[in-house]
Amino acid sequence: MTMVDSPNMSETEEMHESELYGLLGEYDNVTSLKKAAERVRDAGYSRWEAYTPFPVHGLDKAMGHKPTILPWLVLVAGISGCLGGLFLVWYTNATSIEGMPHALRGYDYIVSGKPFFSLPANIPPVFELTILFSAIMAVVGMLVLNLLPRFHHPVFTSERFARATQDRFFIGIEADDDQFDRERTQQLLRETGALTIEELED
Prior knowledge:
The chain is built from 6 helices and 4 strands. By secondary structure, the protein is an alpha+beta fold. It has a 4-stranded antiparallel beta sheet. Helix 4 runs antiparallel to helix 5. The radius of gyration is 28 Å and the shape is elongated. The N terminus is likely disordered.
């Protein structure tokens, strides 16, 4: 029979630390939550989140969130849609490239003496493609940047967290944060006035 040495105390703590997702602090009003968020932000934490039952004005500033890159992605997508739409209407209405397969050739027909390509007449499809590309990028970009869809999260294991959609506010600090230390982080949440502090298992 092979004997397996039992882990010492430090190894046991490391194993338990690796299973710990983070700490969840509970607050009963917006003012307490925003002040707590400012304390956590100033403490240098970067992997943490606030949970509220409704949008809280100024919370993103209290958390130190930087502007998202999503508007720039939407702008690039909109410009791409605009240029793509212009190319599409020009190619299909004002070109007839010799040697190209018939299905890929444009139709440069003269209609009532009008020019083959006129911008005012083609604004509707260009506008629609601009809006379409922008809308798709806004939705897809939001999902990707927020790591969605996500069908489970460790905070869902907390029974008290169910009140996050009713009348309670929460701050969750992840154990993966470089600043995270169980005792020190618990003390920080106590100092911010957390009603309860709960450990979340990963």
